[in-house]
C-alpha cells in the first residue's frame, strides 16, 4: 500500500515538475543591461506604464504579458529622393541614431507598440528631411550649407520624436547624389569662386604692400625734411668745434689750422 502511495507521489511530482518546466519561461525572466520591460496584467489594471522593470532577474504570473525594449542607442539608414527649393530631384542617404526614453517605454507601447521604429521614427525622419531640404537649393545642400541642413533636420526631428518619448541625438547626411550635369555645374562654379577669391587675395596683398611702401617713403621724407631744417650754419659750426675738441684730445700727431676751412671751420692735418 505504501509503495502504491509512493508511486503516486512520484508520478504527481514528475507531472508537476514537467508543468513547472514548461511554464518556467512564462514565470521567470531576465532583463539585460541595455533593456527595460513593462508588464500587461490581463486580469488586473492592464498595461502598467509607470512601473518600468530594470535589469536583473524577475518573476511574474504566467498569464501576464511582458514587453521588453532595447534602450541603447540604435541607428537606421534611409535612402530617399527629395526635391530642393527649385524642384530639382536629389537622392540622399540619411542615418538616424535614436533610442526610446527608458522610463517612458510604457507610453510608447501604448501608442505605437514595439514597432515604434517603423510607425514613428522612420516616417518622421523622412518627412523632416523632405521639408528641410525643400527650403534650400541643390547647390546649398551639396556644398555651402550642408552642416546647416543637417542641424535643421536633427533639431526638428528631435523635437517631434521627444514629444513621443524617443531621443534622436543625430541625423546625418551620408551622401548626396545629384544629376551629373548639375553636379558638374556646381563644382565648376565653386572652382571659379575659389579662383576669384585667390586672385582677390593676391590683389589685396599687393595693394597692402604698395601702401606700406608709400607710408614708409613718406615717413622717410618727413624725417629728412626735419633734419635738413634743423641743420643751420651756427649749429654745424658748433658741432664742428665740438668734434675738433674731441679730436685734439687724441694721442695721435696732428696739426689743427683754426679758421682755414671754406666755411671758417678748422682744418685737421695729420699723418694718421
Automatic annotation (TrEMBL):
Alphabetical list of InterPro entries matching this protein: Band_7, Band_7/SPFH_dom_sf, Prohibitin
Coiled-coil ranges (or none): none
Major subcellular location class: membrane
SUPFAM superfamilies: Band 7/SPFH domain
Superkingdom in the source lineage: Bacteria
Annotated localization: Membrane
BP GO terms, sorted: mitochondrion organization
Entry keyword Chaperone: no
Domain Band: 26-190
Keyword flag Aminoacyl-tRNA synthetase: no
Transmembrane feature ranges: 7-29
UniProt xrefs under SMART domains: PHB (SM00244)
UniProt GO cellular component terms: membrane
Keyword terms of this UniProt record: Membrane, Transmembrane, Transmembrane helix
Pfam families for the chain: Band_7
Topology relative to the membrane: Single-pass membrane protein
Protein name per UniProt: Prohibitin family protein
Organism in which the protein naturally occurs: Chryseolinea soli
Amino acid at each position: 500500500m505504501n509503495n502504491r502511495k509512493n508511486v503516486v507521489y512520484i508520478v504527481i511530482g514528475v507531472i508537476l515538475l514537467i508543468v513547472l518546466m514548461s511554464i518556467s519561461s512564462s514565470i521567470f525572466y531576465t532583463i539585460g543591461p541595455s533593456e527595460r520591460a513593462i508588464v500587461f496584467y490581463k486580469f488586473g489594471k492592464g498595461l502598467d506604464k509607470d512601473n518600468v522593470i530594470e535589469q536583473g532577474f524577475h518573476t511574474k504570473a504566467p498569464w501576464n504579458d511582458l514587453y521588453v525594449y532595447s534602450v541603447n542607442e540604435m541607428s537606421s539608414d534611409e535612402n530617399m529622393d527629395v526635391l530642393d527649393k527649385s524642384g530639382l530631384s536629389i537622392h540622399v542617404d540619411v542615418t538616424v541614431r535614436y533610442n526610446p526614453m527608458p522610463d517612458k517605454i510604457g507610453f510608447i507601447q501604448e501608442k505605437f507598440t514595439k514597432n515604434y521604429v517603423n510607425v514613428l521614427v522612420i516616417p518622421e525622419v523622412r518627412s523632416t528631411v523632405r521639408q528641410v531640404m525643400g527650403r534650400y537649393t541643390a547647390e546649398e545642400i551639396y556644398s555651402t550649407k550642408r552642416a546647416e541642413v543637417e542641424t535643421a533636420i536633427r533639431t526638428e526631428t528631435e523635437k517631434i520624436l521627444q514629444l513621443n518619448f524617443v531621443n534622436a541625438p543625430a541625423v546625418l547626411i551620408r551622401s548626396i547624389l545629384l544629376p551629373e550635369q548639375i553636379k558638374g555645374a556646381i563644382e565648376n562654379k565653386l572652382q571659379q569662386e575659389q579662383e576669384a577669391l585667390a586672385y582677390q587675395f593676391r590683389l589685396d596683398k599687393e595693394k597692402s604692400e604698395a601702401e606700406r611702401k608709400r607710408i614708409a617713403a613718406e615717413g622717410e621724407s618727413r624725417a629728412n625734411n626735419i633734419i635738413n631744417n634743423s641743420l643751420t650754419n651756427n649749429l654745424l659750426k658748433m658741432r664742428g668745434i665740438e668734434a675738433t675738441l674731441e679730436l685734439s684730445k687724441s694721442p695721435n700727431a696732428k696739426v689743427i689750422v683754426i679758421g682755414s676751412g671754406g666755411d671758417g671751420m678748422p682744418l685737421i692735418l695729420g699723418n694718421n
